[in-house]
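**User:**
My hope is that you can spare some time for a protein that puzzles me. This is the protein in question:
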Amino acid sequence: MANLRRDPSRDYLFEAILTLESVDDCYRFFDDLCTVKEISEMAKRLCAAKLLDGNAVYTEINERTGLSTATISRINRSLKYGSDGYRDVLKRLEERGIDMPGDPGKAED
């Protein structure tokens, strides 16, 4: 899988993200940066990675997240052949005792 090419504007974005100190900071920043749909899709992808890492099948992931099988397949390829970004984050979340929501396909009001 091709690695994301480094560039100064991406570095600036990632450095900005690293300055966020709380979930509330993230909500404010990403609310300004992304659409609600974009944020929701990123969250669903992370949940799908967690489910794939736990050996869930595509149909279950589709039912729980609403993601297409094409998107789930791409996430699976990233887990198998990617840069280990998903695995690193999933491991850190587990170490901190942070579990994914029970129903990742539905936003809570």
Summary: The chain is about 65% helix and 0% strand. The chain has a mean pLDDT of 93.
